[in-house]
Amino acid sequence: MKVILQKDVKDLGKVGDLVSVSKGYARNFLFPRLMAAEATERRVNELGHLKKAAEAKKKKAVGERKALLDKLSKVNVSFSRAAGEKDKLFGSITTMEISAELEKLGFSVDRRDIVLEDQIKVLGQHKAKVKLGEGLDAELTITVDRT
Q: 68-146 belongs to which CATH class?
């Protein structure tokens, strides 16, 4: 029996997949738990249409992300912090602070999308990556000066 999955099912497939299962598995497990629906001709056509629409939407979003990353790669984020001897900061620069500073510059980047190689605990220039999924990433330059 062919069914369209409405939820991710372990060892079977992801949402929207068209899979073949036994009638008993479909009737006794998948249908009562609303994990799948029978693959009628109408539902298969709807699924095809929804996949095409989602693909178009995804392409548009990827294009917007690429444009954002091109602009971000040219940005230098600066911080002024108090530091002790040997240029060591009192604390560290976090991804949340970097995200807030980017927000001031007009970029909306979630703190979880910013990846630091090492914690920023000394004065100087540092690198951070902004990862927006699907292999899209840019490198930021972060400058920390003494106040």
A: alpha beta
